[in-house]
Design goal:
Elements: H1 3-19, H2 25-40, E1 45-51, H3 57-65, E2 83-87, H4 88-91, H5 95-101, E3 105-109, E4 117-121, H6 130-139, E5 145-150, H7 158-168, E6 175-179, H8 189-202, E7 210-212, H9 221-227, H10 233-256, H11 268-286, H12 288-307, H13 310-321, H14 324-328, H15 331-336, H16 345-358, H17 364-373, H18 376-394, H19 404-433, E8 439-442, E9 446-449, H20 450-496, H21 501-523
Parallel strand pairs: 1-4, 1-5, 2-3, 5-6, 6-7
Antiparallel strand pairs: 2-4, 8-9
Helix pairs in contact: 1-2, 1-10, 1-21, 2-10, 10-21, 11-16, 11-20, 12-13, 12-19, 12-20, 16-18, 18-20, 19-20
């Protein structure tokens, strides 16, 4: 995998970590520095010589150069600004790189063995001048390799081990620790070397080799051979960038708690139970049973002017004029006023309980994001928006049924009404004028005047038609209400899934971070 691809994976890890609320300033700094270094390229890699005061860094560089490049002396600190020693052939090509490093004092050489490396002599890491250490800390993220220099007196120094070698052991693959001034300990040099190597292993730098040198005596063969071992600059640079990407992603994954795995914070089973609890309480507030009553009443109200004859219009007018329709026969209004029937506290409680349950398992740095994404007002707002959206989408057409049967029944009711009027006039004429009137033999009752029989038959027909209308309106109203309930329930369940979106987004970010860190660890090895 190319260095650019590794950095792209690191950027994915950083974006995921940022979504989890982690501080990603260090990660973005690593990414920016690595991309800048990758853009500079060049045929030489940068090797920094780093160490404390008096350990002989400048003397070591002079011994490697076989000339006086960096001032060495008893005055401490001696090196105030970084000094570069670079091949004359690479000088012009390396100018942008040296400017990026902030190195202005440059010495050239014609040593073929060191043609692919730019050696920097840096200020002391334990200098009395704080600017010196700050300069070293600024440059270390930008160099490609490091030679750590110590001596028999300082080789166990905590500043070197805990402050630098352990910190940079995973970020700079090409490193060497030099035990300088070996002439002062004579035959003990081998045992001190071993002790130094053991110390490095204990402090987290097991793979860093240790070389012995006596720069003042010119005995720097091990160091010279290590630097000039034919390693290609491109390989050193790509390996360094890959190591930075691995280190940055590993650090973010560790802080997010997904270093080894990224199990969801909420299992599917636990989420389903919480969702069922939320949906049940949300349905209770919306009141689907009350909605059904409203829908049936609205259907019957719609049936009256269509199927109840001339009196249907009158009763429907009175019903609406009194405002009764808005109270008992308005399913849409009933839904829109769902907030008046209760609070969302019970609906939000399952999610709050879920957060309280998972929060201890979340790394401290990411808890704030989890807690804030599911705080009370946020949960209530999401549930409310889900209900509103479900009502708006699931009830787009709340017009009650209007079948042809009602028109037929209404027509028959008009005929019945006309018959009743006619029969009433007939009966009035009979009582007032006493004309001869036929009769109809009715079982048990005997002869009954024809107008009275007609009146009874018409009243019975009107009653039957009213009952048929009421039955059909109720049947259709229940079917309509059932469709509304199904549509609303389906839409509400779908929308309530958004309530869990913050937790789902956090789990997705954890998974992305884990995947990016794993892929970087697996694929981004540079040319090691």
């Amino acid at each position: 995998m190319t260095s650019a691809s590794c950095l792209a994976l690191l950027e994915q890890a950083i974006d995921a970590a940022e979504h989890l609320g982690l501080d990603v300033a260090d990660g973005r700094s690593i990414l920016a520095t690595a991309r800048a270094r990758l853009g500079l390229g060049g045929s030489a890699y940068v090797l920094a010589i780093v160490g404390g005061t008096g350990v002989g860094k400048s003397t070591l560089l002079n011994a490697l150069a076989k000339e006086s490049v960096s001032e060495a002396g008893a005055r401490r600190p001696t090196t105030n600004e970084p000094i570069a020693w670079i091949s004359r052939d690479s000088r012009e090509e390396a100018r942008p790189l040296l400017e990026w490093l902030g190195v202005h004092e440059v010495y050239e050489h014609d040593r073929p063995a060191f043609r692919n490396v730019a050696v920097l002599d840096l200020p002391d890491i334990d200098s009395t001048s704080h600017d010196h250490r700050a300069k070293v800390d600024e440059l270390l993220p930008r160099v490609d390799a490091v030679v750590w220099v110590t001596d028999p007196e300082k080789y166990r120094d905590a500043v070197l081990h805990r402050g630098y070698t352990s910190q940079w052991s995973t970020r700079v693959p090409r490193q060497l620790v030099v035990l300088n001034k070996s002439d002062r300990i004579g035959g003990d040099a081998a045992s001190v070397r071993e002790h130094l190597a053991a110390s490095l292993r204990e402090d987290g730098s097991p793979g860093v080799p240790v070389a012995v040198a006596s720069a003042r005596e010119g005995d720097v063969g091990e160091v010279r051979d290590w630097i000039a071992d034919g390693v290609e600059a491109k390989r050193v640079i790509s390996t360094r960038i890959a190591a930075e990407a691995r280190s940055g992603a590993r650090e973010l994954a560790t802080r997010a708690g997904v270093r080894d795995q990224a199990q969801p914070l909420v299992s599917e089973e636990r989420r389903s139970r919480a969702f069922a609890d939320v949906a049940r309480e949300a349905f209770a507030i919306v009141d689907l049973v009350g909605l059904e009553r409203q829908a049936i009443a609205a259907t019957r109200l719609a049936a009256r002017p269509r199927g109840a004859g001339p009196f249907g219009h009158l009763t429907a007018f009175i019903y609406r004029a009194s405002g009764r329709d808005r109270v008992a026969a308005d399913p849409q209004g009933y839904l829109l006023h769902w907030r008046e029937r209760g609070t969302l506290a019970r609906a939000a409680e399952p999610i709050r309980g879920l957060v309280r349950e998972i929060l201890p398992a979340v790394p401290p740095e990411a808890r704030t994001r989890v807690a804030s994404a599911t705080e009370g007002s946020e949960i209530d707002g999401r549930i409310a928006r889900a209900i509103d959206a479900a009502i708006a989408t699931g009830t787009t057409d709340l017009r009650p049924p209007s079948p042809w049967l009602w028109t037929l029944i209404g027509t028959l009711q008009y005929i019945v009404t006309a018959g009743l009027v006619f029969t009433g006039l007939w009966l009035a004429t009979v009582f007032l004028i006493h004309p001869p009137v036929g009769s109809v033999d009715v079982p048990l009752l005997g002869p009954v005047p024809t107008p009275l029989v007609m009146l009874s038959a018409l009243l019975l027909a009107g009653y039957v038609l009213a009952r048929v209308l009421g039955f059909d309106a109720g049947r259709r109203g229940r079917a309509w209400a059932d469709r509304i309930r199904r549509n609303l329930s389906r839409e509400l369940e779908r929308r309530l899934g958004d309530v869990f979106a913050p937790l789902a987004a956090i789990d997705a970010a954890r998974a992305r971070l884990f995947t990016a860190a794993r892929d970087i660890e697996k694929e981004c090895r540079g040319d090691e």
